[in-house]
Write a structure and sequence with these properties.
Helix content is 33%, strand content 25%. It has helices at residues 6-20, 37-43, 88-91, 98-107, 162-167, 169-175, 178-199, 240-248, 286-305, 328-336, 345-355, 365-376, 430-445, 456-463, 476-484, and strands at residues 55-66, 70-76, 81-87, 113-122, 128-139, 150-151, 154-155, 203-204, 210-211, 223-226, 231-235, 253-261, 273-282, 309-312, 315-318, 324-327, 385-391, 407-415, 418-425, 469-475. Its EC number is 6.1.1.6. It comes from Chitinophaga japonensis (Flexibacter japonensis).
Length: 503
């Protein structure tokens, strides 16, 4: 067991004193909150003061300034912070001053959650505050908050240690309230996308997280075991094949915000658990999807910032539609000087060697092209750019290009040097799809542990007939990073994956 610090021991002793004096430090009854810090500070004035004569607010004590028989405390609720003025004779109008002298001054700490009732007023220094008439202990904090130094409303010693921030997000949110804004904006991004697709008449759906076959992407899955059925199951790496089944079933357009899982490395843009929005719509192609996607992201930027220009680090990225379009082969030719169109596997290996790119023997043609683009091209695309028309070997679920042999109708959206969306004109030929799956099996036999499995039920669904369809997946974590100017995926996840804590 972890050794208690001196502060933790003292707080436990204070809790015992509260209990001994008959005060429940964790009362069960609802507390009748009727206002928030931000609402009071925004709307209180001389003209409206009659509306703020009986305010009831609850929150966490963030600081205390003691002046003997009176004090000021800063209380933080879910909306923000407000100052409370507490006078001994106001909260203890009778002879018994225990509530102030003992409970408040001796047994209450920064971090405790309290409730206050009173009226709003403006101090001599011009700060809107609450004059407290009644005070209640709602939750005694047994662990002290990290100290954050502030002066004149400006934080200049916030806790920035990533180990602390990501492992103890609950404490990070308390002491760094600006962190909450990132997650509020994340929710607004989701709401904007939902509204956009709902207005197009599409249906939000749910598909299985536990799947018998990890299909819809090339990735290493997490595997588990179902005891009752005595079968292995996989955490989904994508929801694509299930959403396409729904298009077969007759839905015009479906979308899902899906938690996906990939048993791969972790870095500032990868977490093993992540969120992807996937959308599929019948009778459309990747050209329609490009136009729709650039319109969607323009709306997201405007909803969050009121402008299409978004600050990302030292760069300004403009999501104003339309976005630039570059073919995969043209991108590689531009940034390497090598024309790989028409190259077979051996020639691609030679090109990788010439470019100093390390590749594995089990990599097929598609993986080799992907390595070249990832190593030499991807980082150059800062402004939103559609990379289009991929080699067929890279895209086993994509329809062959209508006019370019050897290619498929696929795009990836690159922003700030990273892919944030992947989309196709979907392959709906069941015979071609079977051949593509069989090619993936050959790669698996060569040792590629990210190659796709054959999903025979999906092939059966295609044989019933899937209409011409376009689909897209948008990485919600990366999109949130861009739209909120955060450098790491851990900054846009409440609880990112961490190594086991050493206690």
């Amino acid at each position: 067991m972890t050794q208690l610090s001196e502060q933790e021991i003292i707080r436990r002793e204070k809790l015992q004193e509260l209990q001994n004096s008959g005060i429940d430090a964790y009362p069960a009854a609802a507390y009748p909150v009727n206002n928030t810090s931000v609402h009071i500070k925004t709307h209180y004035s001389e003209a409206t003061k009659d509306q703020f004569q009986e305010v009831c607010l609850a929150g966490r004590i963030m600081s205390i300034r003691d002046m003997g028989k009176a004090c000021f405390a800063v209380i933080q609720d879910h909306a923000g912070r407000i100052q409370a003025y507490i006078r001994r004779d106001e909260i203890c109008p009778g002879e018994d001053k225990t509530l102030y002298d003992n409970v408040w001054k001796k047994l209450t700490d920064i971090g405790d959650i309290i409730g206050v009732k009173g009226y709003a007023f403006i101090t001599k220094t011009g700060e809107t505050s609450i004059h407290v008439k009644e005070l209640s202990m709602l939750s005694k904090a047994l662990r002290p908050l990290p100290i954050v130094k502030e002066k004149e409303g400006e934080t200049f010693d916030a806790v920035t240690d990533p180990e602390f921030k990501y492992r103890q997000r609950y404490a990070d949110l308390i002491i760094n309230p600006q962190v909450k804004d990132v997650f509020v904006k994340r929710t607004r991004i989701y709401q904007t996308i939902r509204e956009f697709y709902n207005n197009l008449g599409f249906l939000e759906v749910e598909t299985p997280v536990l799947q018998p076959i990890p299909g819809g992407a090339t990735a290493r899955p997490f595997v588990t075991h179902h005891n009752a059925l005595d079968i292995p199951l996989y955490l989904r790496i994508a929801n694509e094949l299930y959403l396409k089944r729904l298009i077969v079933g007759g839905f015009e357009g479906v979308y899902e915000f899906a938690k996906d899982f990939r048993n791969e490395g972790m870095d500032r843009t990868h977490n093993p658990e992540f969120t992807v929005m996937e959308m599929y719509v019948a009778y459309k192609d990747y050209e329609w999807m490009m136009r729709t996607t650039e319109t969607l992201l323009e709306k997201v930027a405007l909803a969050l910032h009121g402008t299409t220009q978004v600050q990302v680090g030292e760069k300004v990225i403009d999501f104003k539609a339309p976005f630039r379009r570059v073919t995969m082969y043209d991108a590689i030719r531009e940034h390497t000087g090598i024309d790989i169109s028409g190259m077979e596997e051996d020639a691609l290996r030679d090109a990788c060697k010439q470019l100093g790119i390390h590749v594995e023997p089990n990599m097929g043609k598609g993986k080799l092209v992907d390595e070249i683009f990832g190593e030499k091209c991807e980082a150059h695309y800062i402004q939103p750019t559609f990379i289009i028309d991929y080699p067929v070997e890279m895209s086993p679920l994509t329809k062959k290009h209508r006019s370019k042999p050897g290619l498929v109708e696929r795009f990836e959206l690159m922003v700030n040097g990273k892919e944030i969306a992947n989309a196709y004109t979907e392959l709906n030929d069941p015979l071609d799809q079977r051949l593509r799956f069989e090619e993936q099996v050959k790669l698996m036999e060569r040792g590629d542990d990210e190659a796709m499995y054959i999903d025979y039920d999906f092939l059966r669904a295609l044989e019933y007939g899937m209409p011409p369809t376009s689909g897209i997946g948008i990485g919600m974590d990366r999109l949130t990073m861009l739209m909120t100017n955060q450098p790491s995926i851990q900054d846009v996840l409440f609880f990112p994956q961490m190594k086991p804590e050493k206690l």
